[in-house]
Design brief:
Helix content: 40-55%
Number of helices: 16
Largest sheet: 8 strands, parallel, barrel
Strand content: 15-25%
Structural class: alpha/beta
CATH topology of the largest domain: TIM Barrel
Oligomer: single chain
Strand order of the largest sheet: 6-7-8-9-10-11-12-13
Length: 397
């Protein structure tokens, strides 16, 4: 990296004093370089309170005191130099918001002054420099929640021809919603698979069916450790219902304790693999574990015993780009896949960051929220992917 790169001259806050007391709104952090350019990063939410601005300003002052005159030559090194200013993630919400915006601004600034894409920068700094756009793209999975999944919206999702269609359970009344043996869910998956086949003119297009189960199969079983057979039966029935489409099950059950959860996911994974219905498929049902808090122990355990095929991360609930990339790099070394999820409230800058992170980490898919029924976020993602791929291919020539 170029050590003669411009340095950090000032850090800006927008808005500074534009919010009146009692109001909420978006907030961005800008890095002003010694060359006069400003690079912005956004807080994750649009609900920063006016009363929180003094805390924001104090944090920004501390960041500037540590980073002023440092060269914009390495994203990871710059963040390492200021990381200790912030409390541990999850303790102070506004601090997490500021940390996310600062990291995003740093990533934009360093990649810009180093004349490379953010994908190339992240790939290089986190040990994945072998990016080949001719062999890799990042599939987009459109996801809808159970309470907004109307037939009309699902048909609109299918018509967009995404690489995958996701369905996320949020209803706590599991047996009533899914049936005592998940028969309603199985019927839904079968009908979805048939609908995909009916509406798709290209028979070769077989979107992945991604089910965010939030522990539902374990709740139906009562005790998923003792009655793992019931969880297996439902999983196999869902696999049959999916037909020729690839099936992914995220968090089929949730147990207290990482060891118990991991060991029983591994049991289920192995049982699904050897069932007769798995033998005629391109691949058996894939299991995914949701990493809610960038849990390092969960990643280490997953890399060690490989209880699942992939982990899922919610970018806009975390925002810690450095910790997320380090986690994804560890999974990649263990040959475990990943999914990145982005919700409908993401700003355009976080849409770009989601694509950059997903492509740099070679994620299996980018899950795009379709709960509000609008196509805008999906089109943003596709456009950003296309533009980034074009830049990467140009740079490789």
């Amino acid at each position: 990296m170029n050590q003669d790169a411009p340095s950090i001259a000032q850090i800006l806050i927008a808005p500074s004093r534009l919010l009146v007391e009692g109001s909420v709104g978006p907030l961005s952090i800008g890095i002003l370089s010694s060359s006069g350019e400003v690079f912005w990063g956004d807080c994750l939410s649009n609900h920063i309170l006016a009363e929180q601005l003094p805390t924001v300003e104090r944090l920004v002052d501390l960041v500037l005191s540590r980073s002023r005159d440092q060269h914009l030559s390495s994203f990871r090194a710059l963040w390492d130099s200021i990381r200790s200013i912030f409390p541990d993630s999850g303790r102070v919400q506004v601090a997490d918001e500021v940390a996310a915006a600062v990291q995003q601004a740093l990533l934009t600034a360093v990649s810009s002054v180093q004349h490379c894409t953010a994908v190339e920068l992240l790939s290089s700094e986190y040990g994945r420099p072998d990016l080949n756009t001719d062999r890799y793209d990042c599939p987009a999975i459109l996801e809808i929640s159970d309470y907004t999944a109307t037939a009309e919206r699902i048909d609109r999702m299918i018509a967009l021809r995404p690489a995958g269609i996701g369905y996320r359970l949020t209803n706590n009344r599991i047996a009533e919603s899914l049936g005592e043996n998940a028969e309603y869910l199985e019927r839904f998956v079968a009908e979805l698979s048939q609908r995909v086949g009916h509406l798709n003119e290209d028979a070769a297009h077989r979107p992945t069916l991604y089910l965010g189960l939030n522990g539902a199969l374990g709740q139906l079983a009562g005790d998923p450790v003792r009655y793992i057979g019931k969880v297996l039966e439902i999983s196999v029935n869902l696999q049959v219902a999916a037909g020729v489409n690839r099936l992914v099950l995220e968090d089929p059950f949730l147990l207290n304790g990482l060891t118990e959860q991991s060991s029983n996911l591994l049991r289920l994974k192995n049982l699904i693999r050897v069932t007769p219905t798995s033998h005629g498929r391109d691949e058996p049902t894939q299991l995914v574990s949701r990493n809610r808090f960038l849990d390092r122990e969960a990643v280490a355990t997953c890399a060690n015993i490989q209880p699942v095929h992939a982990m899922m991360y919610e970018l806009t609930a975390m925002g810690d780009i450095d910790a997320l990339m380090a986690s994804l790099a560890e999974l990649g070394e263990a040959h475990i896949d990943s999914f990145i999820r982005i919700d409908g409230q993401a700003t355009p800058r976080w849409v770009k960051s989601a694509v950059d992170i997903a492509m740099a980490s070679r994620s299996t898919g980018l899950i795009v929220d379709f709960t509000n029924g609008t196509e805008f976020l999906y089109h943003q993602i596709i456009r950003q992917m296309s533009e980034t791929t074009a830049l990467l291919r140009q740079a490789s020539q």
